[in-house]
UniProtKB/TrEMBL annotation:
Alphabetized Pfam families for the sequence: IspA
PANTHER family, per the entry: INNER MEMBRANE-SPANNING PROTEIN YCIB, INTRACELLULAR SEPTATION PROTEIN A-RELATED
Organism: Bradyrhizobium ontarionense
Keyword Ribonucleoprotein: no
Full protein name: Septation protein IspZ
Entry keyword Zinc-finger: no
Family annotation (InterPro entries): YciB (IPR006008)
Residue intervals passing through the bilayer: 5-24, 30-48, 55-73, 79-96, 116-141, 147-174
Domain of life: Bacteria
Keywords, alphabetical: Cell membrane, Membrane, Transmembrane, Transmembrane helix
Amino acid sequence: MKDVFAKLAADFLSAAVFFILYVATDDVVLATSAAVAVAIVQVVYARIKGVSLSFMAYASVGLVIVLGGVTLLTNDPRFMFAKPAIGHFAIGVIMLKRGWMLRYVPPIVAETIPEYVTVAGYAWAALMFALGLGTIAVAMTGDIKLWVLYITVVAGGAKVAAFALQFVAFRFVVANRIRAARA
């Protein structure tokens, strides 16, 4: 679990640097330059340490560099604000694969209600696409406070709520199927 949080922190480090510097200084060039530099340093550090990076790590750095470059050219932070949307869309596309979620649920769920798990996988994909569209809509306002509220409360809360709903629904349906099979 500790390793998962370390990877998440590394994935969000450049975004956190951007956000903190932008809020503290209101300087798009400084915040963006620092975020791009942090992303590049992370890759160089990993290479020096001999750590192999995943495709997603390279994709994240690429996005920071590309969107950071556009942000620097236009002096407009909305491009950096839109970065999480690309992640949501990429994850949504991955979640369109039929049955992707079956390997992430307990065996009793996968064996008892595989059709529900498949439908839930598509629902997660739809949620990712909706959150991506919402991120772009909020990013286009250019309001950093609204963007932070959306990314943390709305997007984060929607994922937590979806997970909780799925957990309760799966428990209910599995319990009913097991009771029906015994009867």
